[in-house]
Amino acid sequence: MPQKEVEKIEQMGRELYDKTKVPVFVAAVSDLNSSKPSKFIESVKRDHGTYILLYIAINPPAVNIFASEDAKKLIDIDQILSPLPWRGTIRPVMSPAFSKSDSVKQEVAIFNGYADIVDQVAASKGVKLTTSVGSESKTSFQIVRAIFYAILAFVIAQFIVSRKRRRAKE
């Protein structure tokens, strides 16, 4: 990953930990078969009671989020890992439809996933982070989606009204 992104991830994680005492870790491995998530989880469990671990394997592509029981209450794992582009922040970027190189996909998936986790933990704890990247693009997408559905509803309503008028004339 570019150094700038790594530094931003470290800033977000440090600020979150300072304000909430919830550590969020990333484990990105090149080969799933040679590096099992259990060894990372055991290492984190030994040092922290509450934790969240974003685990991404490059070959074969795999992603998961591991968290202690109390940390699971702070985030919506299903939402973060959702393959739906308007809901998830990791899997949509890793899909073949995202037309970037594999390395760019992985970098974006790690950054977006980590930022989403950090934002959700902060929101759950009622903390405002100054290093947060925010969710402006997600908000913009929701606005565009709402406008699209409003237009679609209007067109359907117009169609129904015009059919009723035609039947009334006959």
Describe this structure in words.
With 170 residues, this protein is an alpha+beta fold. The chain is elongated, with a radius of gyration of 21 Å. The chain is 58% helix and 13% strand. The longest helix has 34 residues, at 136-169. Helix 1 packs parallel to helix 6 (102-125). Strands 1-2-3 form a three-stranded mixed beta sheet, sandwiched between helices. It has two domains: 3-133, Diaminopimelate Epimerase, Chain A, domain 1; 135-170.
Number of strands: 3
Query: Order of helices and strands, N to C?
Result: HEHEEHHHHH
> What is the assembly state of the chains in this entry?
single chain
What is the CATH level 1 assignment of the largest domain?
Answer: Alpha Beta
Output the number of helix runs: 7
List the helices and strands and how they pair.
Elements: H1 3-20, E1 24-31, H2 37-47, E2 52-59, E3 62-67, H3 69-72, H4 77-80, H5 91-94, H6 102-125, H7 136-169
Parallel strand pairs: 1-2
Antiparallel strand pairs: 2-3
Descriptive terms for the model:
three-stranded mixed sheet; 7 helices; Diaminopimelate Epimerase, Chain A, domain 1; single chain; elongated; 2 domains; 170 residues
